[in-house]
Structure formats: structure tokens, C-alpha cells
């Protein structure tokens, strides 16, 4: 996937990349150079996606004791 640089030094960011990074018109983008010479594109306006662990972190709402829960999970009758 590539883009051509215009005389003004502008490039079009491919739609697939814009969608992945959540880049919309008016977004602020940061360019960073890694130690191995790669360019990293960062959407400054994007809210970080919660990790899979953050999604399940919180307080349980099940009104069961630990023993009742363990019995249910183990299939004890």
C-alpha cells in the first residue's frame, strides 16, 4: 500500500489506515521516527481502546456466595 507525494509534500492516508486509527477530518496526527528508521503514525485525538482485561474488571453483580459459585462452576448438585 503506497501513496504518492504531491508537490506540496502532501500524501493521502489510505482509507484502511484511516479507519484502523480512527482518523477523521480535523484529526491531529503525530509522526514519530523509531530507532530503526520506521515512521509511526499516531492519532492524537483517539481514545485508547481498553484492554481485554479492563473490559471485565469491576465488581461482580451476582448475589452468590463463593461456595455457591464454585459449586455451580464445578457442576456439583
Task: Please provide a written account of the structure.
The chain is α+β, with helices and mostly antiparallel strands and 77 residues long. It has one domain (15-74). Helix content is 27%, strand content 13%. The protein contains three helices and two strands, in the order αββαα. The protein has helices at residues 15-21, 52-56, 66-74, and strands spanning 29-33, 39-43. The protein has a two-stranded antiparallel sheet. The chain is rod-shaped, with a radius of gyration of 23 Å.
Tally of separate domains: 1
Show unreliable segments.
none
Quote the distance from N terminus to C terminus. 59 Å
Strand proportion: 5-15%
Keywords:
alpha+beta; 77 residues
Quick gist of this model?
The chain is an alpha+beta fold and 77 residues long. The protein has helices at 15-21, 52-56, 66-74, and strands spanning 29-33, 39-43. Strands 1-2 form a two-stranded antiparallel sheet.
Please outline the helices and strands.
Layout: H1 15-21, E1 29-33, E2 39-43, H2 52-56, H3 66-74
Antiparallel strand pairs: 1-2
Amino acid at each position: 500500500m503506497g501513496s504518492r507525494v504531491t508537490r506540496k509534500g502532501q500524501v493521502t492516508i489510505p482509507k484502511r489506515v484511516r479507519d484502523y486509527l480512527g482518523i477523521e477530518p480535523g484529526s491531529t496526527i503525530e509522526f514519530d521516527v523509531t530507532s530503526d528508521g520506521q515512521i509511526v503514525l499516531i492519532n492524537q485525538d483517539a481514545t485508547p481502546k481498553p484492554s481485554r482485561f479492563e473490559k471485565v474488571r469491576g465488581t461482580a453483580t451476582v448475589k452468590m456466595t463463593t461456595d455457591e459459585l464454585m459449586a455451580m462452576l464445578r457442576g456439583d448438585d
